[in-house]
Amino acid sequence: MNPTDTPLSFLAARILGVLVEKEKTTPDAYPLTLNSLTLGCNQKSAREPVISAPESEVQAALEELRSRVLVIESYGASGRVLRYAQNFGKVYGLPPASVALLAMLALRGAQTVSELRANCERLYRFDDGSSVEAYLEELAERSRGALVAKLPKQIGAREHRWTHLLCGAVAASAQAGAAARERAAAPDQLEQRLTRLESEVADLRSMIQRLLPVAGTPDSRGNDA
Questions:
Q1: For the chain, which domains are there?
Q2: How remote is the C-alpha of 159 from its chain's centroid?
C-alpha cells in the first residue's frame, strides 16, 4: 500500500511539521530527540491549536510515521541518543516549497496566502503571493490526491484561507484539531475548577466563623441560647 494513501493522525501531521520547521530553523539540533520533538509539538507560540501531548503519544505517532517511512531514525553524531528526521518530501514526491507550505499548515492551521508567505519565510522564501497560490493550486489538483483545500471565504474576510488534507477531509481534520485542543485545555480546566472550589470552601469557613460567636451568645436570662 502506498504510504500516502492513508490519512495521518493529527499528532503525526504536527510531528512532520515540527521536523520540517526545525530542520531549517535549528539545524545544529537536527535530527531531533524525542524530548525535543515533544517540546516542539507542545510549543505555545506559532502553533494552532496549542496542544499538550505527552511523550508517550508522540512516541506512538512516531511509530506510525516510521512504519510509513515518513520519519527516519538515527543516532546522530553522538551515537547515544535516538533521533528523528523527516522524509516527507521524498515519500510524497513534493518540492521544498510545497513541503514548507504543508508543514506550516500542519503547525498553524488554516491560513491565507499572505499569512502563509510570511510564516514560511524561514522555511522557504516565496517571491510573491502569486507564487504561493500557484503551489497551493498544484497541491489541490494533485493527481494522486489533493493535499490542500481552499476554504469558503469568511464573512468580512478579504482572502480565502487554505487548509491541509494530510489528516483526511476538511471536516475530519477540523475534528482532529478540536479534539487535540480539548485535550490541551483539560489540565487548565481542572486547575480552574480546583481554584473555584478552594475559593468556595474559604467563603464557607469565613461564614461559619462569623456565625459561631452568635450561636454561643447567652440570652437575656443569662442562659445559653
A1: 10-174 (1.10.10.10)
A2: 23
